[in-house]
Amino acid sequence: MSTAELAPAIKTCCADLYAQDWVRLLLGNTFHPGGAALTRHLGALLQLGPDDHVLDVASGPGASALELARTFGCRVTGVDFSAEQVTRANVASAAADLADRVQFQQGDAEQLLFDDGRFDALVCECAFCTFPDKPSAASELFRMLRPGGRLGLSDIALDPALLPASLQGVLGVVACIADARPAEEYVELLAAAGFGEVQVEDHAAALSELVKQIDVRLLALKVAAALGKHPGGTSLGVVDLTKAKPLLAEVRAQIAAGHATYVAITAVKPPS
């Protein structure tokens, strides 16, 4: 079966995985390295303001969209493949009293159902690497922006040829590692889609910090399991707690060797 034929199943599997409560336990509310601070930094790089309408692609539970609206006063539309995540995000927006400026809907990043040039800016955090058809996704991101619109993308960057087999399973997917690409390839994909002024920042420290946080949370869960206070015992969803720690050590080794990092990429759709 071809990659194109497998794509719908891959998207559904990934969306369902990120909707699980145990993923939130490991990754926190923002689901990406750097958390809210890096989201604010990305918003600053894009020079967001109250007049901007921003599209958040793969918006997950909505934390980043809400953070951008609170910090910069912009309007944000979030889109996510998971209907469950969209429901959670809209509930969070209402609870934050931001429903007038932040809304979420279900959609596919490779086939976005918006008119051309609808948005002033677009963000996509730790998700582009999970899209099966990255050239199509890059073209859709380009199509969404008005001429002169700004793109902010943050993601894991690595050479998949150097990725150990142990990181190509569930933990690799949760950590946005399994289908990540080198930063140079992301730049090439964006340039091929039509973007210009592409700039790359390295944020390896944010990835290292996320791995550290996951390690601490896993330890707490293992202690709870040993005390009989975790109903799943040594299992967390589809993750075996007894095997997770050595996998995290593999991630740390990849970061230390310079084989894996986290990048923030900005680009501009040229004025027409």
Task: Provide structural commentary.
- There is one protein chain.
- This protein has 10 helices and 9 strands.
- With 272 residues, it is of the alpha/beta class.
- It has one domain: Vaccinia Virus protein VP39 (Rossmann fold, 3-Layer(aba) Sandwich), CATH 3.40.50.150.
- The strands form 2 sheets. The protein has a 7-stranded mixed beta sheet, sandwiched between helices. The protein has a two-stranded antiparallel ribbon with strand order 7-8.
- It is globular and about 45 Å long.
- The N and C termini lie far apart (41 Å).
Topology:
Layout: H1 3-18, H2 21-27, H3 35-45, E1 53-57, H4 63-72, E2 75-80, H5 83-95, E3 102-106, E4 119-125, H6 134-144, E5 145-158, H7 170-174, H8 183-193, E6 196-202, H9 204-226, E7 235-236, E8 239-240, H10 241-256, E9 260-268
Parallel strand pairs: 1-2, 1-4, 2-3, 4-5
Antiparallel strand pairs: 5-9, 6-9, 7-8
Helix pairs in contact: 3-4, 6-8, 9-10
